[in-house]
Amino acid sequence: MEITLGGIAGLVAAIAFVVLVIFLARVLGAASKTLNNVADTTAGLERQLDGIMMETTALLHKTNRLVDTIEEKTELLAPVANSIEELGTSLNKVTDSVRTVSDTVAGAADTNKEQIAQAVRWGSVAVELFKKNKPEVGQTVSSTTTATTTVEKKPRRRFRKQAETPVTPEVVSVPDVESIPDELKGDRS
Asked: How distant, in Å, are the alpha carbons of 77, 83, 85, 98 from that of 91?
């Protein structure tokens, strides 16, 4: 058997082809394992995405129910908000009315201050006359009727009474009957 150059070349080519097939087989085996891993990972992702989709759907349903509940509560609170608004408007009106009455009273007091001062003076005179004509403690007061009244002594207070100023014309000026307002005169008929 004779080995020729062509035979050697064929033998080298055959060995190279076998080595190439072996390496290709390894590469294809590794590619197959990689594709299997990718397929497993994809299947796992599909399962996880299904779970995420279900959770997202449930979350959307809960969100929709929550929005519906909030809308219902808002509709229930609308009358309360309207009532509060009306209350605020009413309070503003009352405040305006009180301000108007206060301004009117202040204006009337300024206009009638002389008459008010006279009424105060007449009141002071009446109080002084009452004090002056009041019976003393222990004094018996009798009238034209048969009943007699004895004024009893009241318990003493800790405070001392101030010295009373006697009612004299210099202290209280009595106005003319013409200058007394009709409201203060009363019925004299």
From this structure: 21, 12, 10, 10
Tokens 């909030």 sit on residue:
70
122 CB burial (10 A radius; 0-12, 13-18, 19+): middle
Does residue 114 register a pLDDT over 50?
Answer: yes
Task: Note the pLDDT tens digit of each residue in 142-186.
Answer: 555 444 555 555 555 555 555 555 555 444 454 555 655 566 555
Q: Answer whether 138's CB lies under 8 Å from 150's CB.
A: yes
Burial, 116: exposed, middle or buried (Cβ in 10 Å; 0-12, 13-18, 19+)?
A: middle
Please name the amino acid found at residue 93: K
Mean pLDDT of 110-121: 83
Q: What is the DSSP string of 115-182?
A: HHHHHHHHHHHHHHHHHHHSPPTT-EEE-SSS-EEEPPPPPPPSSPPPPPPP--TTTSPPPPGGGS-H
Residue recorded with tokens 């009957």: 177
The structure's pTM equals: 0.36
